[in-house]
Amino acid sequence: ALVLLLAVVAMTLGGANAAAQSGEEPVAPLTSLHPVFALRDATGANVLESGQPVSTMQTCGACHDTEFIAGHSFHADLGLADFTAPGTTSSGRAWDTSNGLFGKWDPLTYRYLTPDGDERLDLSTAEWLMLLGPRVAGGGPATTARAGEPLTALAPDAANPETSLLHADGAVTAWDWNESGVAEMDCFLCHLDQPDHAARTAALAAGDFGWAST
Q: Looking at the domain assignment, is residue 105 inside a domain?
């Protein structure tokens, strides 16, 4: 093993010396820990061919069990799995509907995630993601409805806090998740050296959720 290690070191130094003598810039070797991979959209197609947003679930899911990872991470869930009627959480507070960021009162924003059946809409799921999206990894309530079905399975309905949006003038309109897309758990936030947080934040704030990872 020692002989093999010395041989590898010698080859590396020899290559570096050759590059130095020729005046060429040494080329950084590709990492052996992660192979080159294609960026894929929600259908599994290469985005260079489809022109659609990157899907981390499809891209990273080609090798990793992304569905399991997103489904077993509180970074993604944020209380969605425990979402319940107001006042019935472990806190006992009438304004909490979960034990996580999705449903637990946040005094920093002074906004209230509206539960189903409330007389007045404050913070819908879509606006929650616009407002707090930069603080979360995606997945969980950014892809999945409170009852467990995909957000894209919900019909736009201004009377439903999961499929509506409150505007600055007080008007409430329906929100179409199939048009906006959803924000999948963004693996790139932790696994890229320099993820583009500014571009992601801008996409989320604009409601272009499907493009957030792109």
A: yes
Can you say whether residue 52 is alpha, beta or left, with left for phi > 0 and alpha for psi between -120 and 50 degrees?
A: beta
End-to-end CA distance of the chain: 43
pTM for the model stands at: 0.82
State the residue range of the domain holding 131. 73-211
DSSP string, 37-63: ---B-TTS-BHHHH-PPP-HHHHGGGT
pLDDT tens digits, one per residue of 20-65: 455 666 655 555 678 889 999 999 999 999 999 999 999 999 999 9
- 103 is written with which tokens? 């449903």
Residue 158 forms part of a structural domain: yes
Residue 39 lies in a domain: no
The CA distance from 119 to 121, in Å, is 7
Q: Structurally, how many domains does the chain consist of?
A: 1
φ and ψ at residue 52, rounded to 5 degrees: -95, 165
